[in-house]
Design brief:
With about 55 residues, the chain is mainly α. It contains 2 helices and no strands.
Length: about 55
């Protein structure tokens, strides 16, 4: 795993937590921000995957 994959996974997990907290407290804003972080994280993970492919790992 490279740095982008690790950071992306962390953002994804953090976003899932934020979304669940938003659901628990009834905050649509927190839910939405959590979902956005999940998307960011997944994109960053894919960037990391592509970097690995280019490097030939």
């Amino acid at each position: 795993m490279n740095e982008d994959q690790i950071k992306g996974k962390a953002k994804d997990v953090g976003g899932k937590i934020q979304e669940k907290v938003g659901e628990a407290v009834g905050s649509r804003q927190q839910q939405s921000e959590g979902q956005s972080k999940q998307v960011e994280g997944k994109v960053q993970e894919k960037v990391g995957d592509l970097k690995d492919i280019v490097k030939g790992s």
